[in-house]
Design a protein that fits this description.
By secondary structure, the chain is mostly helical. The protein is 67% helix and 0% strand. It starts with a helix and ends with a helix.
Amino acid sequence: MISNLEVFDYFKQGLREEVLTHPIIKRNRYLWWFSQTELDKEDIIYFTKQFSVFSNQFIIAQLLKTINANSLEQMRDAKEILVNELGVVFKSENKTSATGIDPEVVGVEGTVDGGTFRFKAAHFEWLLFFAKPLGLTFNDLGQRKHGDPATLFFCDELIRIYGSDDFSTAAGASFAVENWANAGFWKQLIQGLEWYSKESGTHLNLGFFKWHDALEAQHAQHTWDELEDLFLNNKDFNQDKFIRGALEMLDGVEAFWEGLDQYRITKYWRETTG
């Protein structure tokens, strides 16, 4: 007789073959270009505006994930992310932090329970601080009106799938988002932004990006353990809905990056053809 752990191993293998081979995880044309090319100010501004819309709209999706949680424990996990997005700093005995991140402002480990709220630790304000040397202000960032169609599609898919009231669908979307984030895109963004900052003489504070990169390095080792717990201990878990939620979420992620890539291509043809 096959044990539950053996069934889970089969499920994991299916995820590796069907979900983790998604094009946006395996190859992201825009990020390859972003990390390898000579970026100009227009490139950075367009990226920053679109990313800021995603960052702000993610708060709505995370609120829905909190409201639609399947248990008190899951609700608390969702709240950890939500209130950290809004500026509650993780409480930790360890004051060390990743290079480029002020440990007195924000840390990459611990819990928000007993943590300190700081306006400037809110992710949107952090991104606004990054954008200031580019000449961008509060009114240039974050709101839906600044999003292109591909960005808004991605945001709406986050709200629909990641924030779904169907437990398995939402869990699949979370798994997809974690593995997308673990695929290294933060490092590629940092590489391109560091190049631009150095070559243009524009001092860009990359704490927002470096913090996320350091955080994902910690999350990577927990993703599969969390999935195993869901699979083995939650009677409502539905494999098919989980996989469908994961794939649809990754399609939404892909649409976002393809929208950025299409802007890049259009800009190139505009500049080369006059």
